[in-house]
Structures are given as C-alpha cells and as structure tokens.
C-alpha cells in the first residue's frame, strides 16, 4: 500500500486535493501485502465503541494509508469520506492534528442522540461514548470542524428520543450536517425485526426540527470564523457573479470572494488563497483574498503569528 501511494508522486504532481473515498473508509485494511505494520500500535476502536464485525489482523490500516497519502506532497490536501465513528481512535486523531495537509474536518455520523435509538440501530455506541469522542477530537485537534448525519423518526423513536438528538446537535455545534426522515428498506435488520411505527407527519415535523437545529449549529460555527484568516482552495467561478469565485476552506465550508488579489492580479482556479472571513450565513462564508499561498506557507505563517501573540 505505502509503495503504491509513493509511486503516485508523478501522477499526482500539481493535484491540489485528494479525497479518500469508501464505505466506512476509516475501517480500511489492506491485507494484500501481508504482515503486520510495526510502525504503530495495534488497531483499536474508539473507547466505548463496539462492532459486530470480526477483527482483522495484519496488513495496512487506515492510519497507514492516511500517513502515506499525506506524505506524497505537503501542499496537497487530503480529505476522506465516509467514515464510521468507531474507528476514530486517538492515533488517527493525532495524525490528523500533526499533518497540516490533512483537513481538520471529521464526519462523525451520529444518526441519533438517544442511546435507546442507537441500540435499536445497532450502532455500537451510546450517546455518552459519542460525546466523549467529540470532546476528545476537539481536544486533540483544536478548531476541528465536525459534521454528521441524522435520521428522524426511526422505529419506536419517542419525543424524548428526538429531544435528545436536538440537544446533541446543540452541544456539538456541527459545522454542517445532513438529516433524513426514516424510510423502511428491505434486506435490513429494521425491516425484519422492528416496526416502522412513527407516523409520517411526526417524521416530517421532527425532520424539519432537525434541519432547523443543524442550520443554527452551522451558523454558530461559521460565525466563529468571522475575523479569522482561512486557507481556501479555489474551485470555480461563483454561480451568482462572474466577478467572484467559490472555494472551500479546510473545514469544508464554501467561501465566496472577489476574483482579484489586492495587487489586482487575477486569482486562478486551483489557487490556494489566504482569505480573511468577513461575514457568513449558515451555509456560506464571504471573505477578502489577501494573497496567494500554499498549505506549507500558510500554516508556517499561522504558527509564527500565533507565537508572536501575547
């Protein structure tokens, strides 16, 4: 695995962002080369999390993949999707904290804030274990952007269960999140063993309340960035104005900004731009481009600036 990634140096030359994509991507384990990696401790689940899957031994784990991919080019951003909270042990969190080019964004699908609902879903964790993971991630990676998924109206969900989900959203302050009303699907445990007993109008109301809570959470997160300088990767011309560009900051939030640097030179697609955040909505940041930058230069300057602060 590591050899394969390192051989991509020439292929990835000039690439600004790579997304490691897979179902439960952080459960990755490559057994094709055999042997147990000696450079890190044995793979462990996040504290308080369990799994019904058989533990795999040997081979390369997600942390090895993330380590190798982020070492290809320090100016190439690395993101990954879609992970499962159970596999975010402290080793993975510390690696993210150590590598400026690994985006400080964690997608932690909670699905519900109620331990009883989580048990019926067979998620393998409680509300308390999930929140301990959130607190640990925020401690290890200051400023981390946490995103999530939620289901409204799962089987036997009560109003108390729903309120627990709303309170979890409020506590975590997600950068953004996604929510969906529950729908029963064939070939699932819920289809065979549970009853879809939450009325559709109740599901719709709870779904709307979750959406409102997530919008409020996103707005709080974005407001916390106003006045800061963020590194944005330019992705496209803004859909609303040919004189503005759109990009994403490290946290994955979209930013809109003028297409010219202060010296009037034009910003190019795929530039990294140091961006002062001036205002926001729940979905979008607006900013002023300060200079062309790179991941290495931006975070070196950020560290230097922080050291000079009282």
Automatic annotation (TrEMBL):
Every TRAM domain range: 223-291
Superkingdom of the source species: Eukaryota
UniProtKB keywords: 4Fe-4S, Iron, Iron-sulfur, Metal-binding, S-adenosyl-L-methionine
A GO cellular-component term linked to this record: cytosol
Pfam families the UniProt entry points to: Radical_SAM, TRAM
A molecular function (GO) term: 4 iron, 4 sulfur cluster binding
Annotated Radical SAM core domain residues: 1-220
PANTHER family found in the cross-reference section: CDK5 REGULATORY SUBUNIT-ASSOCIATED PROTEIN 1 (PTHR43020), MITOCHONDRIAL TRNA METHYLTHIOTRANSFERASE CDK5RAP1 (PTHR43020:SF2)
Name of the featured protein: TRAM domain-containing protein
Native source species: Mesocestoides corti
């Amino acid at each position: 695995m590591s050899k394969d990634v390192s051989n991509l140096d020439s292929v990835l030359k000039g690439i600004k962002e790579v997304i490691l994509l897979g179902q439960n991507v952080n459960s990755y384990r490559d057994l094709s080369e055999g042997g147990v990696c000696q450079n890190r401790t044995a793979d462990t689940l996040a504290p308080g999390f369990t799994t019904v899957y058989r533990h795999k031994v040997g081979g390369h784990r997600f942390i090895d993949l993330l380590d190798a991919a982020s070492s290809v080019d320090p100016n190439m951003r690395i993101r990954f999707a879609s992970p499962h909270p159970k596999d975010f042990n402290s080793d993975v969190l510390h690696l993210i904290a150590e590598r400026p080019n690994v985006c400080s964004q964690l997608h932690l699908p909670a699905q519900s804030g109620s331990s009883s609902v989580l048990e019926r879903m067979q998620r393998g964790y409680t509300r308390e274990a999930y929140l301990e993971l959130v607190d640990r991630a925020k401690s290890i990676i200051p400023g981390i952007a946490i995103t999530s998924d939620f289901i409204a109206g799962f089987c036997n969900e009560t109003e108390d269960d729903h309120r627990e989900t709303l309170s979890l959203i409020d506590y975590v302050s997600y950068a953004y999140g996604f929510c969906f009303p529950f729908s029963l699907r064939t070939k699932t445990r819920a289809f065979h063993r549970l009853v879809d007993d939450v009325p559709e109008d109740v599901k719709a109301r709870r779904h709307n309340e979750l959406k409102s809570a997530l919008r409020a959470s996103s707005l709080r997160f974005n407001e916390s960035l106003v006045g800061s300088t963020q590194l944005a990767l330019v992705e496209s011309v803004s859909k609303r104005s040919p004189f503005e560009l759109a990009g994403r900051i490290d946290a994955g939030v979209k930013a809109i900004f003028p297409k010219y640097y202060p010296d009037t030179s034009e910003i190019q697609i795929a530039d990294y731009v140091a961006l002062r955040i001036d205002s926001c909505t729940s979905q979008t940041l607006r900013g002023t481009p300060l200079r062309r930058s790179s991941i290495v230069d931006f975070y070196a300057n950020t560290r230097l600036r922080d050291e000079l602060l009282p």
